[in-house]
Amino acid sequence: MALTYVTYAQNEAGLDKVICKGGSVQIGGTDNGHCYLWDAAPGLTDRNKSDPTVNPTTTTKYKVTVIGQDFSFKRIDEVTVYVAEVKLISPLSNVKVRFNTVSPGKLDIEFQATVSPNIDVVRNHFAGKIKFEIGAIGTSALTWDQPGGIAVYSGTSFKAKATYTGLPNNNSDFGEKTLKMVIQDCNSMDITNKNKVFFTKDATNNTLGIEPNWFYYWNQFIPHERIATLIYDSGLGGYAVTNPITRVTKISSLSSGHNDETGHRGLHTFYETVAHESHHIVLWEGWWGIGGSPIAANDTDNDTYPDNWESSNADAISFGFIVGVNDDYSISNSAGYRYEEAKCRAIEHAVIETTFDLLDWSYDPTGINQGKQW
Questions:
Q1: Cis status of the peptide bond prior to 244, with omega within 30 of 0
Q2: Is 196 strand, coil or helix?
Q3: Which of 14, 46, 230, 262 has the CB geometry, 3.0–4.6 Å to 52, for a possible disulfide?
Q4: How many other C-beta atoms can be found within 10 angstroms of the C-beta atom of residue 259?
Q5: Which pLDDT belongs to residue 185?
Q6: First-to-final CA distance of the chain
Q7: 303, 326 in Cβ contact below 8 A?
């Protein structure tokens, strides 16, 4: 009986397939009692099945010859199995991202993934199967431009955008976040990256919206020591002023900049300023007790320093305190000013300024007083 040759007939080898690296797939079709012979090829172990499972490591073409019962026909067909790769190209690992300066603050994170080979059959295979995930940033509201973070192909890549609206309440909500690309049916290709989230230092788009972000967030972790209440005052001329009786300290934007005493900047200046002001309270309480006021009988010169301390303390004598002379701190270059500043500046220098660097998620666009984690 003569054989009927039908070259590259459809449906014997099946439609082209797409797998991920390390994956496998079934090719061919239903066994209709014919004789099947697949050409030897990588990833093929059973050459005589109508529907063998293959696991190539690179894109491979498979060819099958089908001979009908009683040698009634001979058909040849082929199928290509594309071994695809999906790459997360944005955001890459360890990228620094920051909320903008408007109110409410917003943070957009653009996710992009490419497929290779970038052809229709591969793109169609991954349509609806690539999902981007990202963790919460405190109370900030997360929305996606694509439902559920499922990527949509546009231009040259699969894309989705995550948007956080509103800066979070807590400083601890910033920092390292986990980003993930999940690929359906390709668990071996899931990719996890780490990004770092920052706030803009001098913007005022935090939850309260009335003080700069640096003060709002740094104030949550820098120890106040003896300060009961720390307030930001934009109209204050110097670094800070403290009422030692109420233990209320008002602090200015200078305290987030350059410390002329230590030469430090940013968070370090803030930490040192708070420590400095706290020590003013420590000194006062040493003279008059907690919340105490000067006692007229022991402050006859009305300079807020006890007469018995001025006349007997070695430091007081060395700094030139004299009972009967107004040595009030508010008088420029007075003994009181020189003494208190010397003691409080010594505290600034004693501070280990790097103690809280890992908690500083501020970003300074000028770069002058840059955040310690930027």
A1: no
A2: strand
A3: 46
A4: 22
A5: 82
A6: 81
A7: yes
Please answer whether residues 170 and 361 qualify as being in contact, where contact means their C-beta atoms are separated by less than 8 angstroms. Answer: no
Tell me whether residue 64 is exposed, middle or buried, using C-beta atoms within 10 angstroms of its C-beta: 0 to 12, 13 to 18, 19 or more. Answer: buried
For the chain, where are the alpha helices, taking DSSP H only? 120-126, 213-218, 267-288, 307-312, 314-318, 335-350
**CA gap 126, 114 in Å, rounded:** 10
The pLDDT score that the predictor gives to residue 10 is 52
* Distance (Å, whole) CA 51 – CA 13: 8
How far apart CA 138 and CA 171 sit, in angstroms, is 9
Question: What pLDDT does residue 66 have?
Answer: 96
Contact 114, 156 (CB under 8 A): yes
**pLDDT given at position 2:** 47
Q: Scanning the structure block, which residue is given the tokens 């300060």?
A: 227
Pick out the chain residues at pLDDT < 70. Answer: 1-10
Distance between CA atoms of 314 and 278, rounded to whole angstroms? Answer: 23
Other Cβ atoms less than 10 A from the Cβ of 220: the count is 12
Positive or negative: CA dihedral 350, 351, 353, 355: positive
Per-residue confidence (pLDDT) for residue 1, from 0 to 100: 41
User: Could you give the CA distance from residue 134 to residue 374 in angstroms, rounded to a whole number?
Assistant: 21
Quote the CA–CA distance of 351 and 348 in Å, as a whole number. 5
254: Cα separation from own chain's centroid: 27
79 neighbors 85 (Cβ within 8 angstroms)? no
Joined together, the tokens standing for residue 80 give 């290509």
Alpha-carbon 105 to chain mean position: 15
Amino acid, single-letter form, for residue 256:
S
User: Considering only CA atoms, which of 133, 142, 146, 148 is closest in space to residue 166?
Assistant: 142
pTM as predicted:
0.87
Q: Phi-psi category of 302—alpha, beta or left, where left has phi over 0 and alpha has psi -120 to 50?
A: left
CA–CA separation, 323 vs 278, rounded Å?
26
In the block, residue with structure tokens 């990256």 = 193
Would you say 240 and 277 are in contact if contact means Cβ atoms under 8 Å apart? yes
Rounded to the nearest angstrom, the gap between the alpha carbon of residue 274 and the centroid of all alpha carbons in its chain is 27
Task: State the residue for tokens 């301390």.
Answer: 309
